[in-house]
Amino acid sequence: MKKVLGLFFLILIIGVPTYVYTSSTFERDVPNITTEHSDFWNLRDKFKIKIDDESGIKFYKVVIINDGKAKILLKKEFLPSEIKKSVEIDLKLPEFYNVKGDKILLKVEAVDNSKWNYFAGNQVDKEFSVNIDTTSPNTEVINNNYGMKRGGSGIAIV
After folding, report:
1. Which helix (H) or strand (E) is 20 found in, with range?
2. Who has greater pLDDT, 78 or 39?
3. Contact 108, 126 (CB under 8 A)
4. What is the pLDDT of residues 50-99, one digit of tens each?
5. What is the mean pLDDT of residues 111-125?
6. The whole model's pTM is what?
7. DSSP string of 57-104?
8. C-beta separation of 57 from 51 below 8 A
């Protein structure tokens, strides 16, 4: 009886950590947060953010920090039946939000559906420092040709 009980505990002591270490439900990779934009944003277009993870995204939050003040723009928690492996966010500033200065900080937080960290999942925080560019390009005519006829050819250099 003691040998069977000892063998059971030995299998339990070796088997459970091996399962936790090798199982895909206990994966340890943090979600990947990317954006298509460079360092500039004109505030009219949507700021696209993509979050990917192999175990699925459970929660994400987007915070804007401007002039030392933080404001939550988006916050979404998925139900277990709604969990997706990839989430695309089209971020648009609300009409009432007034940006001061020419820089903002976008902070994106994401948690995946892994059972790692005592069933809390893997969490990642990523910050994007964005320069605000609301000045339209300035153009002027350098030289024009009045001798151009319909159906002819010409060139425009911008």
Report:
1. helix 2-22
2. 78
3. yes
4. 999 888 888 999 999 988 888 899 999 888 788 888 889 998 887 777 88
5. 76
6. 0.72
7. EEEEEEEEEETTEEEEEEEEE--TTT-EEEEEEEE---TT----SSEE
8. yes
Residue for token pair 């009045």: 146
- Alpha-carbon separation of residue 110 from 65, 74, 87 (angstroms): 17, 12, 10
Angstrom distance (rounded) from CA 135 to CA 102:
11
User: What span, in angstroms and rounded, lies between the C-alpha atoms of 52 and 86?
Assistant: 4
Which phi and psi angles does 11 have, rounded to 5°?
-65, -40
Task: Name residue, tokens 């609300």.
Answer: 94
∠ CA 101-47-37 to the nearest 5 degrees?
A: 90
In terms of Cα–Cα distance, which of 99, 48, 50 is closest to 71? Answer: 99
Q: Which pairs with CB-CB distance under 8 Å and at least 24 residues apart come from 17-24?
A: 24/54, 24/55
Pick 41 or 10 by higher pLDDT. 41
Gap between the Cα atoms of 84 and 79, Å rounded? 10
The CA–CA distances, whole Å, from 41 to 67, 92, 109, 128 equal 17, 11, 20, 11
